[in-house]
Design goal:
Blueprint: H1 3-13, H2 28-37, E1 46-50, H3 55-59, E2 65-73, H4 76-92, H5 111-126, H6 136-144, H7 149-157, H8 160-171, E3 183-191, E4 194-198, E5 206-210, H9 216-230, E6 238-243
Antiparallel strand pairs: 1-6, 2-3, 2-6, 3-4, 4-5
Helix pairs in contact: 2-8
Length: 246
């Protein structure tokens, strides 16, 4: 194991071993069961694999698509871009709708859960019936709606019920979980006519420009292509769509 590659990841989160939630597998079946147990209506929308960013693969995805979940390897190139992007936005600003739900990630390997909550909570703003009353997700929405992104992250990290559910989903995966991984989940959603990249490791949502609801998948794939272009020899990218059932 290359410790020099792992060290920056540890520095980013400044977390101890007990904060490690273990990584979720990018597996629609596993994550669908996980979010259903948390109170999300998977009969209406569920995760499906997106096999590629090409048109033929997008055409295979059931419609409508409500969110896109992207898993990518953390690398030196990705980190350099992330820093430059943050500096540019802090200097020049960006438009972010106040309708966007956003939270930080404070627990190691909780990015899969954060990406799903980013997707579901933003979807539930216009379709509240997607979340069961008295469910964990509804409680999360109610108790974090007035918090800032940092405090939402602290709330999540301190919630042992969700941590237990997350780790249970990890155990249901088909691959053996590792404590130290160099991959990361982010979500893409359409809110208020714009495409947003929601990444709990970043200081704010990233506005990728105007986007109609029906353009969510193709415009997310365009954004994902820029991630891929930064590491052209990398193959460990996966994409899932939160969409109508197959």
């Amino acid at each position: 194991r290359n410790i020099s590659k792992i060290q920056p990841f540890r520095q980013i989160f400044e977390m101890q071993k007990e904060d490690n939630w273990m990584p979720l597998e990018s597996n629609p079946e596993v994550i669908n069961k996980y979010v259903k147990d948390l109170g999300f209506n998977t009969d209406k929308y569920c995760l499906s694999d997106v096999l590629a960013v090409d048109d033929w693969a997008q055409d295979m995805v059931p419609k409508p698509v409500k969110a896109v979940i992207f898993l990518y390897p953390i690398s030196e190139n990705q980190e350099k871009f992330r820093e430059k992007q943050a500096e540019a936005i802090k200097k020049d600003g960006q438009k972010v709708s106040d309708k966007v739900f956003y939270m930080e990630q404070h627990a190691a390997n909780a990015c899969g859960t954060v990406a799903m909550l980013h997707s579901i909570v933003n979807m539930a703003k216009s379709e509240p019936d997607l979340v069961a009353k008295d469910s964990f997700i509804q409680k999360f929405i109610d108790e974090t709606k007035d918090l800032n992104a940092h405090d939402r992250g602290k709330y999540l990290k301190g919630n042992k019920t969700l941590e237990s559910a997350h780790k249970d989903a990890v155990e249901k995966g088909e691959t053996q979980a590792e404590e130290e991984v160099m991959t990361h989940f982010v979500a893409f959603v359409e809110v208020d006519g714009h495409l947003y990249e929601l990444d709990g490791r970043k200081d704010f949502p990233i506005n990728h420009g105007e986007c109609k609801a029906e353009e969510l998948l193709p415009k997310s794939c365009e954004a994902i292509k820029t991630f891929m272009s930064r590491d052209p020899d990398e193959i460990k990218f996966t994409i899932m769509a939160l969409a109508a059932p197959p």
